[in-house]
Every structure is written in structure tokens, then in C-alpha cells.
Amino acid sequence: MRKRLVLAMAGVLLAGSLTGVGRPAFADHCDPSVQGAECEDVGPALEDFVDIRQVPPGDTGVRAGRGSFTSRCGRNENGHRNSDNHIVTPGVSNGAHHVHDYVGNLTTNGFSTDESLAAGGTTCRFGDRSAYFWPVLRARGAGTGAGTDEPGGASEGNVGRILLARSVTLQFRGNPVSRVVAMPRFLRMITGDAKAATNGGANARAQWTCTGFTDRLTSRYPLCPRGGPVLRVLDFPSCWDGRNTDSATHRTHVVFPGANGACPAGTRAIPQLRMTLAYSVPSGPSFAVDSFPEQRHNPITDHADFENVMPDRLMSTVVSCVNRGLRC
User: Fold this and answer.
1) Would residue 21 count as lying in a domain?
2) Domain extent for 273
């Protein structure tokens, strides 16, 4: 438990030293301008932010081959959001306890099934009815809005104005050492760990950076020079066991390749999904990703989910583009 007033003052100082001006990094559960006001600190902490210029270059995420296919699905202009997760907590409302942005399938919610998704509409081109989703990013602190007391919202500690991504890139990439095979229809995958702040980093895959600095990635919130866009880079596993479309942990049927890009024995390479989400954020340490309440909005908890509902013909096109080294 820390005083919000102290955090607010520190946030302004940090923002000023790194990016000019900014708001403090805290949830607006009380008015820090009131002398002596104390509130529960739900994060994020100032140490969760870093000037991107202090991150050394070198890390660019999962290695990939030359070929790629980009599914164009918009950036959730229609405001499709809920706090569900049909992959991890099926048949439950507010199973995520934080709000997700969706693109692709228009019907995705906690009660979605393979059959309902196959019958749903989509925001994607070429009949890609896949479900793509991730926790929203919010502007936080004084003057950014307190959010709404809806499932996954203020009552869960997720407050502030939801930021609509300025761009969403959904790219399926090749493997650097082998050809890929088609993903099976209804393959379900997750990347990252929504509870990494308490579980530890074994399954964490958070990757943050700024436009113009994509040769470096960090697991902290980046403070970008001159208010440049913040990027979230979410790489999915791409080595499939050849049999299952899901598993008990949602992790063992599709795993990540090794450091050289090769898939482990007993698995085969499939197109590797990379989501790149770009945001215009307020200056300074004044934004955060939605999270479970106990995760304190730690940037390491960033994660995303995907279910493949592409028509078989479209998936064949993806595989052909990737294996031929084309950019489609």
C-alpha cells in the first residue's frame, strides 16, 4: 500500500526527464490532489517503464523465414470488446476479468464454439473468420477518464480510456529452416502469460517497442521519443504436434521453435502468427494494459489469443506464400 500522491509526483518527474511532460502511472481510484489521500496501489509501477533509447538493440523476437501472408482485419473500429475468453475459460462471462479487443470473427465471446465461429461474420478479407484478440491498452491517470464499472472494467481495477490501436498487423510468417504445413482448422493458440507477474516468466512473451526502434524489444512499457507510437509485438508458437487443435494447458500442442528457428522433434512447422499493434499514447508513464487485479498491470503480462477459422483454400494460399518466399 503506497500513497498515490507520492506516486503521482514521481510519475511527473520521470515523465519530464524522459519525454517532456506526462501523467503519473496509477489507477484513478481516488483523487490524489486531496491532501493525505491514500488509495490501494494497483500498478503499474514506475519501474515498469523504460526509455526505449536505453534498451540495447539486438532482440527482434521469434526468427522467421522470408515469406509471409498478412490477413487484413481492421483495428476493431466496430468496438467488439468483452471480458471473456472462450479458449481459456469457455462458457463463462467475465472469465478474463479484463477487457479484450477483437478483430476477425464478429461473434467471439465466452460461449463461442468452433461451430458458432464457422457461422459468424468477419472483419477480415477473403472470408478469414478467425478469432484474434488481446487485452486492451488504456490511458491512465488524471484526466483520462475512470472507465466504466462493467465486467473486466473499473470494478476489476482496469480504469482509464481505452485506446484504439492505430494499426493492427496480423502476419503469418515462414520458418527459417523448413517448409511449413497448413494449420488445421479450429487450431487454438495462446501466447504470453496473463498471470506472469505472479507465475514467473516461464511462459511470458511480452514484447514492447516503439516505431523506429524495432531492432530492440523490451518486456517493460516503452517511453518513445517525441511521442512516437508504442508497439506491442505478440509472437505465437509455430511448432504443431500434428494431431491436436488444443490441449489442457493450451500450450503443449503448439510450442515455440528453438533459438535457431528449428521445431523440436515430433513437431512440424506451421505459419507463425505475429500480431503487431501500434498505439498513440499519452506522454510519459501514463498507459497500461488491462490485467487480472492481482497482476498490477505489469507489462510482462501482455498476451494474446487466436483460433484459426480460415477456409482451407485460404490457408493453402498462406502456406504457398510462406513456402515460396513471397510477401502476400
Assistant:
1) no
2) 45-323
